[in-house]
Amino acid sequence: MSGKEEVAWYEKPELRNLFLKMGSNALRGYHAPIVSPRTVFVGTNGIIDLCNHLGSFLVPEDKRVLIIVDKDIRKFGEFVAERLKTLKQIDSKIFDNILPDAPKNIIIEGVKMCQEYEPKIIITVGGGSAMDTAKMIFLLYEVPNINLNHAVVPSYFGTRKKIYATVAIPTTAGTGSETTPLSVITDTDREPPKKTIVYAYELCNDFVVLYPEFTKSMPPYLTMGTGMDALAHAMGAYVLTRSNEYSDMHNLKAVEMILTYLPRAVKRGNDMQAREKMQMASYIAGVGFGNVSGGIEHSLGHQLGSAFHVHHGVSVALYLCASIAYQSKATNRFLDLAKQFNIQIENKKKDEILRELLLKLQGFMKSVNCPLNVKELERPKISLEEYNAKIDLMTNYAFNDIDTLFSTRHLGERDIKPIFEIAYENNLDDLMELFYK
Fold it and tell me: Which of 159-173, 180-194, 307-321 comes out lowest in average pLDDT?
């Protein structure tokens, strides 16, 4: 895993070009799988339903579950472990050494625990980093000699021989990782470390439990950040021309729900209707973007997060306006997003509608206390000098990010750097120039 190849497959020019050709309508008509979990347990009885389901097919000698959980919410993992044991006499062990952005060295620790314990089910309780870590532990335990840099889409690894099923119980409402066939990890073998994406259909969880009680303790900032991540998933993916009817219906519904319920969840953490709806919106957006791609706001946001340790959801939100503005020159799909913001589009010019959409989006971000630009960031504060010092590296890494391949409008390094520059303040006139130029 560590040293067979320095770069991921999508950073190689010849494979990038091949993959771009795969985005044509002709080839997508040939190969365009739809991926989603087998069963989603929803409601206050969801964890009991899961226990009953697992108990129905695990024979006594196979009743071993590895629970992967963030250390600061270990109590939730212990709650699941207790239910498994009490209801169905299923044993479990807990792995809680989870770090943000799923670094490779932590993944290897989890693989070693699997080798010692030989679990038959992996259950993840946590946010995006925990779920991404769990997916890689699963894959590397099943296929120890895999070179992740060679995991070109589509790849099939023949998993679920050691692990019968994977389960995700999200404790946030935004990442969508519970639904997607991909994992975002940090390649700590590179200097500086770089976020890379491993995509394989087999990484999609078999079962998901949406249990909103686990999200109730999220503080306002985390609620906002994860919610904005879900909004970026839905809006960013919707403007991509690789979208289809299946992804469209999920992404548009997710936008509608997030605009309604995220402000409530941020304002009142104990508003359980808002928590429930946001968890569902996150899941729906995960299915929507997971069957298309993240937008270019993710290409750029990944780099800001890695360089300055900014929360992922906030990072991608800071580039969402720019992502929509830049791509709207090549597509009219942003018009449907404008309707979601109750913008009247009849008898208006495209640039007028786009300007109004960007204003409405920024207004929504303000309403949930999301910074509108890098300059407004407080966690952490980033000076213009610090930002500019890393902008060339971020530009290069963003160009080589897999999500850049899916841009509706061609996106080269010379196009990316101005977007990074604009995002420090995200002035509306500057954002509109991305559309005009």
Answer: 180-194
CB 397 within 8 A of CB 196: no
Using a 10 angstrom Cβ sphere, with 0-12 exposed, 13-18 middle and 19 or more buried, the burial of residue 31 is: exposed
The order of strands in the sheet holding 165-170 is 39-42, 207-210, 165-170, 121-126, 64-69, 91-95
Q: How far apart are CA 35 and CA 96, in angstroms?
A: 28
| Token pair belonging to 28 | 């997508």
Burial label for 282, CB within 10 Å (0-12, 13-18, 19+), is buried
Of the candidates 38, 70, 68, 72, the residue with the CA atom closest to the CA atom of residue 54: 38
Residue pair 170/282 in contact by the 8 Å Cβ criterion:
yes
Q: Which residue has the tokens 């339903």?
A: 49
161 vs 185: which has the higher pLDDT: 161
And the tokens for 35? Answer: 């991926």
What integer pLDDT is reported at residue 17 of this predicted model? 64
- The rounded radius of gyration (Å) of the Cα atoms in the chain is 21
User: In the Cβ-directed half-sphere of 107, how many Cα atoms lie within 13 Å?
Assistant: 27
List all residues 6 or more positions away from 29 whose beta carbon is below 8 Å from its beta carbon: none
Domains of the chain: 9-215 (3.40.50.1970), 220-436 (1.20.1090.10)
Question: What's the whole-number mean pLDDT along residues 195-200?
Answer: 82
* φ/ψ of residue 167, rounded to 5: -130, 140
**More confident site: 155 or 52:** 52
Of the listed ranges 27-36, 200-209, 252-261, 379-388, the least confidently predicted one is 27-36
List, in order, residues 6 or more apart from 75 with CB less than 8 Å away: none
> Count of alpha carbons within 13 Å of 164, Cβ hemisphere only?
13
User: Sorting pLDDT into bands at 50, 70 and 90, what band is 16?
Assistant: low
The least confident of 5-9, 59-63, 90-94, 258-262 is 5-9
